[in-house]
Write a structure and sequence with these properties.
Shape: globular
Protein name: ABC transporter substrate-binding protein
Pfam families: SBP_bac_8
Helix content: 40-55%
Number of strands: 9
Structural class: alpha/beta
CATH architecture of the largest domain: 3-Layer(aba) Sandwich
Distance between the termini: 54 Å
CATH topology of the largest domain: D-Maltodextrin-Binding Protein, domain 2
Largest sheet: 9 strands, mixed
Number of helices: 17
Order of helices and strands: HHHEHEHEHEHEHHHEHEHHEHHHEH
Keywords: Signal
InterPro entries: SBP (IPR006059)
């Protein structure tokens, strides 16, 4: 089935309202926004493999001076590659509006630098849905016209599956999350996200907590302690990643024996690497992403039109069709013999993380820093 990649009504009806004078004044106060609070906001954590925030902001500013168009932030790697093919290029052809994407790491401190730019400033950003509320609360993002609450400033438009990948040359059978922790039988480094999201869920899965009980457990102090105690067992063997692209690169470069990775970073790689790694489909996790309009672009018709277009079902389906996710059972059995029944993915609970991200990020960062 073909899906239309363009629709006209959004061009005359903005989907986001302009900022009030109070909100516009709020952006200037961001200069006092502390680095610690930025990290606690939970939009990502610093990693030696991630470009420093100020350097990446200067890179975008330098690029903006030489390239005219609508500058946006998205995630480098397979995500941006597919977006460019099925979303950005078609939009350019239909509207003659140039889209200039830049990779970023999801850190709110980085977003602050982009928000303060005035010359060809970044207009829109792809973020996890659990992060959009923080962006609005800090007045970095404009609010959605159709949303009267204070808990959201964007709509889910993309889902990405994250699964465990492993080097098939090192395993006779398909490993589970519990095998992920078995460093005695399978020595080597494990790649995990340097963020409580995904990581705490995986720790509980590895200790036998059923998928439908994950957030019941994390809603209690005992369940949180349970997850951190499980992570403590693996601490010396963890290779941390901060972006989807980095997760794939750690595995394909041999930096880890196995790891949590977006499925598309493995299925969309070169054929040798695709055959080299298996994917544990039975307990994969699904993360929702949305698009936010930066506060400085709240009155920019081009930014409003572009994000409204991305949020339409046709564009959501176009990305879903292009993103390498769950293959056919024939292909799955070719990649991982005797795979059996594949249950639906475990959806990461955005409501839970909206309410608990700050406190769990603070504890997670303290745990990571503790030698």
């Amino acid at each position: 089935m073909r899906f239309p990649l363009f629709s006209l009504p959004f061009l005359t009806t903005p989907s986001r309202q302009a900022l009030s004078s109070q909100e516009q004044g709020g952006t200037s106060s961001l200069r006092n926004f502390g680095r610690r609070k930025a990290l606690l906001a939970g939009l990502g954590c610093l990693s030696p493999l991630v470009m420093p925030t100020t350097a990446s902001a200067r890179h975008v500013q330098k690029s903006a001076k030489s390239v005219k168009g609508l500058h946006i932030l998205t995630f480098a790697g397979k995500i941006a590659e597919i977006q460019n093919k099925v979303l950005f290029k078609p939009y350019e052809q239909l509207t003659r509006q140039t889209i200039v994407p830049h990779g970023w790491n999801g850190q709110v401190f980085d977003l602050q630098h982009f928000a303060e730019q005035t010359h060809h400033a970044v207009a829109a950003v792809m973020m996890e849905c659990s992060s959009l509320r923080t962006g609005c609360t800090l007045k970095l993002l404009s609010r959605h016209q159709t949303d009267s609450s204070s808990s959201n400033c964007g709509q889910p438009s993309t889902t990405i599956d994250y699964a465990m990948a492993w080097d098939k040359a090192r395993f006779d059978n398909t490993p589970s999350w519990s095998d992920f922790w078995d460093v005695a039988r399978h020595p080597g480094r494990r790649a995990l996200r340097r963020d409580p999201r995904l990581t705490l869920e995986i720790a509980l899965l590895a200790d036998g907590v059923p998928p439908n009980a994950l957030y019941h457990a994390l809603a209690t102090p005992e369940g949180i302690d349970h997850a951190f105690l499980k992570l403590e067992q693996l601490r010396p063997y963890i290779a941390w990643w901060s972006t989807p692209e980095e997760a794939g690169r750690i595995l394909t470069s041999g930096g880890a024996l196995m790891g949590c990775v977006p499925t598309g970073e493995i299925l969309g790689t070169t054929e040798p690497n695709r055959q080299r790694f298996g994917l544990y489909w039975q307990q994969r996790l699904q993360v929702q992403y949305g698009w936010g309009v930066l506060a400085m672009a709240a009155n920019n018709p081009a930014a409003l039109a572009f994000v409204s277009w991305l949020e339409q079902p046709a564009q959501q389906q176009a990305f879903a069709n292009g993103w390498p996710s769950l293959p056919s059972m024939t292909e799955l059995n070719a990649l991982t013999p005797r795979i059996g029944h594949i249950p639906p993915p475990i959806t990461v609970d955005d409501g839970f993380w909206e309410n608990n991200l700050d406190k769990l990020t603070e504890r997670f960062q303290q745990w990571v820093r503790h030698a």
